Amino acid sequence: MGNNEEDAFHGFTEETLFGDLDQFEACLDWLHSESDDDEGKRNPGGSKPGKRLNKRRDFKKHYNDHAAQYFCDDPIYDERDFRRRFRMPKSLFWRVFNAVASADPYFEHRRDATGKWGIQPLVKVIAALRVLANALPADAIDEIFGMAESTVCETIHHFADALDRQFSGQYLRQPNEEDVQRLVQRNAERGFIGIPVAQAEHLLSEHSTL
């Protein structure tokens, strides 16, 4: 770490964010060097020679945090919070979780090569759903889930593949007449938002006589 970089960091203020690009870049260089120094002190090495040093990730803590927030008897966040953040009710979440976990051994809870327990299946599924439901970049949830970007991408791949195998026959097919009638009836109960009343009534009567 050079003195110029450290001086730039300590002299950095909000006003210089856009006003002095050189100083801002020097600040970032200093932060990266400090992060690398800390990693070197904490970890003796990566899992393979030449590999970057491993970050310490407390998978059990992240599991306990999410269990307390959503999945215990008295969760911190209620059903309304759950539905808003996961874009589905909790009952559907458990259906998806059980289907995915039974379809792919990737979602089993296993030990890694060093004997340490890996990421819990529940956390993997939650992470995949949160990224997909909220259109987040894969590296946006590291602090919340303790999962590296590459692990999140791998998890999403397995998650999507398992969903396809488990549900494609039911949901990724052409709708039959029963499906159409059910959808029409459901939208009729909602009032056919965005469709003129006369057209909606005609559509409903047309399918009710089939």
TrEMBL record:
Highest taxon listed in the record's lineage: Eukaryota
Disordered: annotated segments: 34-55
Xref: PANTHER family: OS07G0546750 PROTEIN, OS12G0169200 PROTEIN
Protein name: Uncharacterized protein
The species this protein was found in: Phytophthora cactorum
